[in-house]
Amino acid sequence: MNFQRGRFREEPEINLIAMIDVLLVILIFLMITTTYAKFSGLEINLPTADTQNTAEKPNEISVVITAAGEVLVNRNPVGGRDVISIGAAMKRAMGSGKEPVVVINADAKAAHQSVIDVMQAAQHAGLAHISFATQAPQN
Q1: Hey, CA dihedral for 112, 114, 117, 119, is it positive or negative?
Q2: How many angstroms separate the Cα of 61 from the Cα of each of 37, 79, 104, 107?
Q3: Which of these, 70, 126, 80, lies nearest to 100 by C-alpha position?
Q4: pLDDT of the chain, 139 residues: tens digit per residue
Q5: pLDDT of residue 7
Q6: C-alpha distances in angstroms, 54 versus 49, 51, 57, 79, 100?
Q7: Whose CA, among 28, 55, 81, 90, lies 20 to 30 Å from 100?
Q8: Looking at the domain that runs over 60-132, which CATH code has it been given?
Q9: What are phi and psi of 122, to 5 degrees?
Q10: What's residue 138's pLDDT?
Q11: CA–CA distance, 125 with 91 (Å, rounded to integer)
Q12: Burial classification of residue 87, based on how many CB atoms lie within 10 Å of its CB (0-12 exposed, 13-18 middle, 19 or more buried)
């Protein structure tokens, strides 16, 4: 039974405007009190040393193979074309110091076997680093 006929019941409502105002005040407070740290990177102080810059020249053995099959080690002709004599010439050219690099300059018309002989001679001389010299094609 409804004893209050003329009275309407009010629905409860949430006042959103006051809640938004409070949240904005809290947000402004947090923005003002927050410190922003800027990290630009690590600062490292490296040690210094007073040394002279010496250009270290690599130890190279230049081996030239001509079209006729002649072998030159560091511009000195080798007596024979066999592996043993080429290896002995490489050992003489090796000298002391760190392990040299053998640079093979073979003529385009040189026999393939003469290049293989130079590679075997370097192996017998104990030289493991071998490089081949090339040139760019000319137009």
Answers
A1: negative
A2: 59, 17, 8, 17
A3: 126
A4: 556 666 667 777 778 888 899 999 999 998 888 877 665 555 555 556 555 655 555 688 999 998 888 999 998 999 888 999 999 999 888 877 678 899 998 888 888 899 999 999 999 988 888 988 877 766 6
A5: 66
A6: 14, 9, 9, 37, 19
A7: 81
A8: 3.30.420.270
A9: -65, -35
A10: 67
A11: 6
A12: buried
Q: In this structure, which amino acid lies at residue 73?
A: V
Task: Give pTM, 2 decimals.
Answer: 0.56
- Residue at 80: amino acid letter: G
Say if residue 124 is exposed, middle or buried (CB neighbours under 10 Å; 0-12, 13-18, 19+): middle
* C-alpha–C-alpha distance, residues 28 and 13, integer Å: 27
